[in-house]
């Protein structure tokens, strides 16, 4: 099970140090789940260092450029991310797609670059409210998956983790029902298996909080969660992780 924290454009280095200190005290080392942090690029090295004694915690970047180097002001290559201690990269987050105009094709180039650079991509897919209301959820998710993963080797598909994040649920307080999320997860899982994955991992994201984590994780189609707002304080994030782990270990 994976609990992934997307800090977005929040939490600088000194706050990250304080966060990590309190978090490792509140959340003991455990082998049955991993915790992933996606800090801002300027906070990455500090976060990596702060969690260096915790093998259950991994850190990554929120975005990458697909080129190995060059004149791309403001962008970060996979090699630069890796050199700063990242072992993960978020790719195709809806804010990159919808606020920064990232195309399906660019998302695909980023996934390939991340895999070739030896990092684990966490590929985000999900429909907008308009697409959902038109009944296009499955078609949109499938198109985003196909465009992002086209031409990859089965070995690369096996290393890719996918997050289903309905755009209308991100930062809005609205979540997909656990049953709706599970239906989309099943489609994603089946596609990944068709393309060569053996035990695909599919996370859910979109206004996940300590008070809905238990009902979401009751759906065994969910292999974990990707969380924005509720990952920004040690109190909410540690409570969400603790409740999530307990939900999975306690038979329903
Ligand atoms: C996200 O940023 O990926 C996300 C799911 O945000 P939030 O949990 O705030 O909806």
What do you see in this structure?
This protein has 252 residues and is an alpha/beta fold. It has a single domain, classed as Aldolase class I (TIM Barrel), CATH 3.20.20.70. 42% of the residues lie in helices and 15% in strands. The chain has helices at residues 13-26, 44-50, 78-83, 94-99, 104-116, 129-133, 137-149, 154-158, 178-194, 213-217, 234-249, and strands at 2-6, 34-38, 57-61, 88-91, 120-125, 161-164, 202-205, 224-227. Strands 1-2-3-4-5-6-7-8 form an eight-stranded parallel barrel, surrounded by five helices. Helix 1 runs parallel beside helix 2 (44-50), helix 1 runs parallel beside helix 11 (234-249) and helix 5 crosses helix 7. The site of phosphoenolpyruvate has 13 residues, from strand 8.
């Amino acid at each position: 099970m994976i609990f992934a924290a997307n800090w977005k454009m929040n939490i600088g280095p000194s706050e990250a140090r304080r966060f990590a200190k309190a978090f490792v005290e509140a959340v003991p080392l455990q082998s049955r789940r991993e915790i992933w942090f996606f800090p801002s690029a300027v906070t990455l090295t500090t976060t990596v260092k702060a969690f260096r004694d915790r093998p259950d915690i991994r850190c990554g970047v929120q975005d990458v450029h697909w080129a190995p180097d060059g004149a791309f002001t403001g962008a970060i290559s996979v090699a630069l991310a890796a050199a700063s201690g990242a072992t993960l990269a978020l790719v195709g987050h809806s804010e990159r797609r919808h606020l920064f105009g990232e195309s399906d094709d660019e998302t695909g180039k980023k996934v390939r670059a991340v895999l070739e650079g030896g990092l684990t991509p966490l590929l985000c897919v999900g429909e907008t409210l308009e697409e959902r209301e038109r009944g296009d959820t499955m078609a949109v998710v499938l198109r985003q998956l196909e465009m992002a993963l086209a031409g990859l080797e089965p070995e690369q598909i096996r290393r890719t983790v996918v997050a289903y994040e309905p755009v209308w649920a991100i930062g809005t307080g609205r979540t997909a029902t656990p049953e709706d999320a599970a239906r989309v997860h099943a489609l994603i899982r089946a596609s990944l298996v068709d393309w060569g994955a053996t035990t695909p991992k599919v996370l859910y994201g979109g206004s996940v909080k300590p008070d809905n984590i238990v009902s979401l994780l009751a759906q065994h189609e969910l292999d974990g969660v990707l969380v924005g707002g509720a990952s920004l304080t040690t109190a909410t994030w540690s409570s969400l992780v603790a409740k999530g782990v307990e939900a999975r270990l306690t038979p329903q």
